[in-house]
Amino acid sequence: MTEQLLEDLPKVIAELEKKCRENPKSVSAFHHLGLVYMKAGRTEEAISSLERAVEIDPLNGDAMINLGAIYFGLGKLDKALALNEKAISVHPEGAQAYANLGLIRQQRNELDKALEAYEKALQYNPRLATVWMNLTSLLTMKGEDERALAAARKGLELEPDSALAHNNLAVALYFSGEYATAMKHLDKAKELGYSVDPNFVARLREKIN
């Protein structure tokens, strides 16, 4: 977040708060205010505004998804899960809700359900790079090395400057026995600012040497 944006936030918030007071039925005003509150780190107010948006329009899937993201960040996975499932019931082809659902399921160690959700997300939007990255880690956890490698390559293809994508590919290559190439991508991940696991680096060097 730039300094200019930080300086502008109080003004933007004041304007949106005024809009909400003048039009207490405006879904867009409350939704937008909730997003700006999120950027400002005013979590409780963001929750209140987004809940108001959903209250006004129970079919507002985007507000549900954003509200779910806040609860996910707070570690309230049950609430995040319920909101994304509700968003899917409203918009069954919503890729982002399925993507979020997969991440929540993965956090709860419900790997098969997480996989199903990620696959649904990619069915509706195959260009969601973060889903390919999350899918890589999930498939690695499940021991599906060939599929994990394919997912890792797709994630890097979509976001070639992503440190996480390079790290994921390094891990997938390691489990596929391509140690030298794995080290190249691990070095690139470090160059891009990723905090790589020193134990993994040590294991990889042992394999190369």
UniProtKB/TrEMBL annotation:
Q: Where are the TPR repeats?
A: 27-60, 61-94, 95-128, 129-162
Q: Which domain of life is it from?
A: Bacteria
Q: Which UniProt keywords apply?
A: Repeat, TPR repeat
Cellular component terms (Gene Ontology): cell outer membrane
GO BP annotations of the record are:
receptor-mediated virion attachment to host cell
| Annotated protein name in UniProt | Tetratricopeptide (TPR) repeat protein
Source organism (scientific name) = Desulfoprunum benzoelyticum
